Amino acid sequence: MHRIFTNERVLKDCKIYSMLVDAAKKPHASFHMPGHKISEWDITELSYSDNLSAPSGCIQEAENDLAKILGAERSFLLTDGSTAGVLSMLYAAKRLGVKSLAVCRASHKSVFNGCALVGITPLVYPEKVVDGIPVGYTLAELSELYPSVLSADGLFLTSPNYYGKTADLAAARAFCDRENKLLLVDGAHGGHLHFDKDLHAGRFADFWVDGVHKSLPALTQGAVVSARTVKFSLALYEGVQIFRTTSPSYPIMASVEYAVKYPRNEKLEKAVRKYVKTQPRIKAFEDWTKLSVLFNQSAFTVQSALEKQGIYAEFCDGKYLQFYLSPVQTKEEFFALTKVLNVLLKEFPLEEENTSERVPAPVAFDENAEIIWVDMEEAVGKICAVDCGLFPPCTPLVARGERVEQDKIELMKKASNVFGIKDGKIAVLNEKKGE
Prior knowledge:
- The chain is built from 14 helices and 18 strands.
- The strands form five sheets. Strands 1-9-8-7-6-2-3 form a seven-stranded mixed sheet, with helices on both faces.
- By secondary structure, it is of the alpha+beta class.
C-alpha cells in the first residue's frame, strides 16, 4: 500500500487516506468485517470511517473535491471499476427518458450489457479504422454514412479509446444541445485527461466515467462517475446505488482520491511526444499515455520477446503492441523502454500484409434460435451468439449477430487472453435446427 502513496504533498490533501492513517495509530480490536481481522487500511463502515452509500465525512469531502477537479456537479467514487459507472450512467439516462443511444460497435462490452439490462436500444454503427487503429467518426461523417443512428435520444462515446484517440467532444456537445439529446462518455482510459480541459469529458458530457486506475496511480477497480447538473446528479445517484457495491474497499477509495489529485508530469509528456516524432512506426494520438507500436505479423513474436526481458505491454492486437504510460513513471523508465523498442523496430522490419479493412456485415439475429458451442474452427461462417475477442481491450472482435470469419479465429488463437471463448469453443446459432 505505501508503495502507492508516495507523494507527500498530495497526501496532505487526501481526506480518506488521512482518516485511515489516523485510525491506524489507535488501538483497534476487530470484531467486524473483513474476516482477515487486520484493522489497518482495509476496514468496513465504522463510526469514524464514513459510509460511501450516504457519505457525510471524509468520503463526502473527497467526492466534493473530485467533482471540482473533474468539472462535475456531483462525482461518485467507484470501487467496482468503470463498468459500474457505465451501468449507472445508462440507468440514469433511462430514468431521464432515453430510449435509444447511438453507440459505436467498438464500445466496451459493458455498454451493450448495460443497454440490455436497463432497456435502452443501442443504434450501433461500425467503427472507423485507419491503418489498423479505430479512430472514430466525426459527426459530419456519421450524418453522411449512418444518419439513422443520430435519430437516437443521445450519443454514447468512448474518449479516449484504447489507442489514445479522443472524440470531438465539443462538436458532440454542440450537436446534443441543438438536438436536445444526452451525451454520455466512457472515459475509462482517460482518468488523467482532466489536466487538459479540451480533451476531458467533464467540460462536455452530461454523464461520464473516469477510469482512474488505468492511467493514474490508483488501485485496480478505482474509478469515478460524474454528472453535469443537479437533475442529472439525482438520476445518477439512483443508478450508483443500484450498481455500486455496498462493501467498498477503503484502500481503493483512498487511492482514487490520491490519483485524481496527483500532479501532471509535463516533463514525461514532452519526452514521449518528442520520441514519437522520431519513430514513424509508433502511432500516438491526443492521449500521450498510449503508444501503438506497429509490428504487423511479428506483433505476437515481439510481445513474447519483450516478456522474456520482463517488459509487459498492455495488449497486442495482432498488428500493434500497445504500451500504457502513467504520470508516476520517470523519464528514465521511459528512456529504458525506448532503447528496447529502437532495437526491436530494427530487428523486425515491417512485412507486407493485406491492409484491407472491412466492416462486418450485419446479420438478422434470431432470438429464439438454439445456441450451441462449437470448436473455434467449426465456427467459421456461422452466426456468433456471444461477443468474443481479445482481452484487453475487451471490445468485440466478433460481435453477437455477425458471421465468424477465419482471420478473426486465427487472431484469437494467437492471443494469450480472450473473452467470450469457453474451452476453445465459440457460441453460435444452430442454423441447422429444424432442417
